[in-house]
Every structure is written in structure tokens, then in C-alpha cells.
Amino acid sequence: MGVDIELQPSNTYFVEEKKVHDVETGFEDSHEKEGGLKRTLKARHLSMISIGGTIGAGLFLASGFSINQGGPGGALLAYSLIGVMIFFLMTSLGEMATYMPISGSFNAYGARFVDPAFGFALSWNYWYSWALTVAVELSASSLIMGHWFPNVPSWVWSACVLVIIVAINSISVKGYGETEYWFALIKVITVVVFIIVGIFVAAGVLGGVTYGFSNYTRGEAPFVNGGLGVLSVFLLAGFSFMGTELVGVAAGESENPEKNVPKAIKQVFWRILLFYIGAIFIIGLLVPYDDPRLQSENVLTSPFTLGFQLAGIDYVPDIMNAIILITVLSAGNSALYACTRTLWMMAHSNMAPKIFGRINSRGVPMYAMLLTAIVGCLAFLTSLFGESVVYEWLLKASGTSGFLAWVGIAISHLRFRRAFIAQGHTLDELPYRASLYPLGPIVALVLCSVVIFGQGVNAYSDGKFNFLHAFGEYLAVILFIILFLGYKIINKTKILPLTECNLSRT
To answer: Is residue 1 within 8 Å of residue 12, measured between CB atoms?
Structure first.
């Protein structure tokens, strides 16, 4: 079967022939026809999807390393700054997603409000970011299962995880939402229990060795390695928050996006405050920053494992290994979902082959899912050959491309609000209004840029510049520029005048 890809600028994102009018919102919904995407995600699904994107292996494993690098004070400062950035990004996304809940990807806003070439580059950037994440989680699953079954080939576990996440996403969007709800709930319970137990341990209630606030004045603490220490943690913290924007991807499949999306967005700030700032603060009380165990990102030396062991809880490594396995399944599940909907959106906006816009009777874009699974497998195979050099590049590209997606949110929101006013609309028409506009998206844009270009610091080792290392750090930026310029040159696109931005809600 031949497949033609039409690289032509387009502002059409819903092309189904039959539309259903939503009386309550006035939004003409092109989903709820036979064979179309289904609006079946409930408020609790969206809420937990945003939580699931916030709590990941970065918190369970990398948080201790962050404290080791920047000290307890440096880690708190870095995570707080990233938390502020995420809050502003989510409110920006919330304003656009409630007014215009486009299924598949918020990257479509870049084509509507900035430049079709910008939307094209953002969309493909976001797709391969999550496709590579699938590969990362396949690798992580083999390492985790190796803790229990060291003699079983690693690829066996990776294949099992791939089958599981494909099966979950093949059921329906509600199947994905329900699974993610329970995955996220387990992670939330783990963090809450850890914080409660950590408070008792730090207070000496449970006995054993306790350090408490003395950890914050120990040695170089609270700020270790000065500004560079805070910057290094700043970069790590940013990667830990990848996935919070998934609520924007799922908005178009929500039962009532005008009500449910703002509700999920508003809770992000408090989740960041509790799950990250609270957990980092407790870890700083329990384990000294210079404890050599924090330099390893291993389940046996996870700060959560160490904290529960201080409380005298048995079988902690096995418990945490199981929870981290659930985290990996959750991340892989979300990655496959995000890729599938992003590719579906691109197929319906002439940015990808139309075959990926086909949907089965359960409302699942199966062709888009299969392509993502294949690409994820190919990327995973690079971890098995050539000393994993290519895999390391792909891993770094995946992380950096996530920040590029956040840059796209900030820029799109700045343009959306200006176009909204320029076309005679009033702010009273917005179902949800972002906080501190335009300061919010500007601050988020600046902080994202600092993280992206700050990657170059890692290319210097012992005063020498490592070109291959730098190439890996900036591969995503290079690919983004190629996609943007290639589409722009071929289609001769331009930055859209504010009065010509497509604010149609269909």
C-alpha cells in the first residue's frame, strides 16, 4: 500500500466528516462518531495522569544524587525553581487546552499561533521524544527485573514490558486512563508514606541514627559546589518533571475538558510542593549529602530505600524495586499513548502519512501505535551494540526534546493570548485564565532555555571540551532546527500575523 505524505501548511486538525455539537461548551466535537477518538477520560483520570507524569524514577532514584551534587539546600532551590517553571507552563497549557482541546498533542498550537513550520518541528520533536522514552523504559525494565532474575536475558523482560504497554493502549483510551490511575495512586501512596515515616525517623521517634537539621549545616551544606552545584541539580530536576504536560495531550479525550483540565492543572502546584519539595526536604534530613551511597542511582541505595531501612522496615529493596518497576510501566504506558495521539494529530494536519490517522472501532490509532513500538524497539537495540554510544545520544536527545516541547508551550501561549485580543475577543471568554500572564510564560521560557543551553556544561571534563559529548547533548536542538527550516523552505511558510491565527474551536 503506497503512502503519500503531504508537507503542506494546514490549520485543519479535525477532518472527520461527521461532527457532534457540544451544547454545553459550544465546541464542535469531531471525536464522537463511529470509529473516532472517544471522550471517555474522567476527571480522576486526568488528575492522576498529571500526577503520574510528575512522579517517576527521577524522584525515587535520582533525588539522592541531586542532594549529593548540590547539597540539601541546593537541591531544594533547584527543584523549587523547576517547580515554579512547571506551574507556569501548566497554567499556560491549561488556558489553551480548555479553550481549544485538541486531541493528540498541544504542539498543534504552535502551527496555529506561531508558524506551521514551528508546529511541524514541535510535533515531530515531541513524538520522537516519547518514542525514545519507550526505549529507555524497556532498558530500565530489564535492569529492574535483573535484581530478582539475574540469569534471565535482559531482552526477555524488555519484550514483556513492550507487550504489556501495547496491550493496555490497544484496549481503549479509558483502558489507558484507568491503568495510569492505579499506577499513579501507588506512586502517590509511596511518597506520602515515605514523608510520614521520614518525619518520625528524623525526629528520633523510631530510634536508630538520626541527623535531622544538622545535615543542612554539615560540611559545605546547605549549598555544595556553589552555583555549579545548583545548576547541575537544576538540569537533573528538569528531567524529573518530564510528562507533566501529558494532561494537554489527553485534554481532547476528556469528557468535559473545560471543567476537568483546569481542575487537574490547579492541583499541579500542590503536588510539586508535596511530592518533590517535601520528599527532597525529608531526604536531606535523613541522609548526609556526602554519604557515598547517594552517588549511585541503584535501587539498593535509593534515598527512599535508605529512609525506610532507617525505620526498620524489612524487605525494603524488594518493595522499592517493585514500585520502581510500576513507575517504569507507567512511564512506558504514557510514552506510547503520547506518541500515538501526537502522530494521529500530525496525520490529520498533513504533517505525517495519512495512514497514521486511521482509528479502529475502539478509538485507538493502531498504525500510529505500531510505528511507535517499532521505533522504540529499534532505539532499544542500540543499547545492546556499539558500546551504547548511539543509545546514549538518543537518551540525551529524548530529555532535551522534552524541554523544547515546553519552550513550544510558552511561545504558543504568548502568541495565543495576543492573537485572542487582536481578533476582538475578551478575556471573559476564556474558560480558564493563566496566572501572571505574560510574566508566567516568559519566566518559563527563560528557565527552559537555561536548561537547554546549560547542557553544554557537561561537555567540559578536566578543562577539555568533548565534541562527541556536546553533540549528544545538543542532538535534539540540531534535529529541531533541521525540521523547522526544512518545512519552512519547502512550504515557504511565515510567522502568522496575529489577526490570521486560527482560533477556531473546531
So the answer is: no
Of residues 133, 166, 154, 182, the one with CA closest to residue 328: 133
Q: Which three three-digit cell numbers place residue 119?
A: 508546529
Instruction: Name the one residue in this structure whose C-alpha cell is 494521529.
Output: 344
Q: At what angle do helices 154-171 and 316-347 cross, to 10 degrees?
A: 50
Q: Report the distance separating Cα 309 and Cα 302, nearest Å.
A: 11
- Note whether 11 and 27 are within 8 A (CB): no
Q: Can you tell me the distance from the alpha carbon of 268 to that of 490, in angstroms, rounded to the nearest whole number?
A: 40
d(CA 501, CA 417): 11
Cβ contact 247:103 at 8 Å: no
Using CA atoms of 438, 441, 447, 451 in order, give the dihedral in degrees to the nearest 10: -150
The contacts of residue 266 (CB under 8 Å, 6+ apart) are none
Beta bridge partner(s), residue 460: 465
Pairing of strands 460-461, 28-29: unpaired
Whether the Cβ atoms of residue 381 and residue 132 lie closer than 8 Å to each other: no
Q: Rounded to an integer, what distance in angstroms lies between the CA atom of residue 272 and that of residue 59?
A: 11
DSSP label at residue 256: -
Contact 340, 367 (CB under 8 A): no
Q: Half-sphere exposure of residue 428, counting CA atoms within 13 Å on the CB side? A: 2
For the chain, the distance separating the N- and C-terminal CA atoms, rounded to the nearest angstrom, is: 31
Cα separation values, 231 from 125, 238, 397, Å: 25, 11, 19
C-alpha cell at 397: 536527545
Cβ atoms of 97 and 430 within 8 Å: the answer is no
Could you tell me if 45 and 260 are in contact, meaning their C-beta atoms sit under 8 angstroms apart?
no
Segment among 59-68, 133-142, 171-180, 460-469 with least mean pLDDT: 460-469
- Residues 309-327: pLDDT tens digits? 888 887 888 888 888 888 8
Query: Backbone phi, then psi, for 20, in 5-degree steps?
Result: -120, 130
Q: Which strand (E) or helix (H) includes residue 28?
A: strand 28-29
Residue 416 has pLDDT above 50, yes or no: yes
Check: CB of residue 269 under 8 Å from CB of residue 87.
Answer: yes
Exposure string of 323-340, with b = 16+ CB inside 10 Å and e = fewer, is bbbbbbbbbbbbbbbbbb
Band (208; pLDDT cuts 50, 70, 90): low
352 closest CA partner among 337, 333, 339, 335:
339
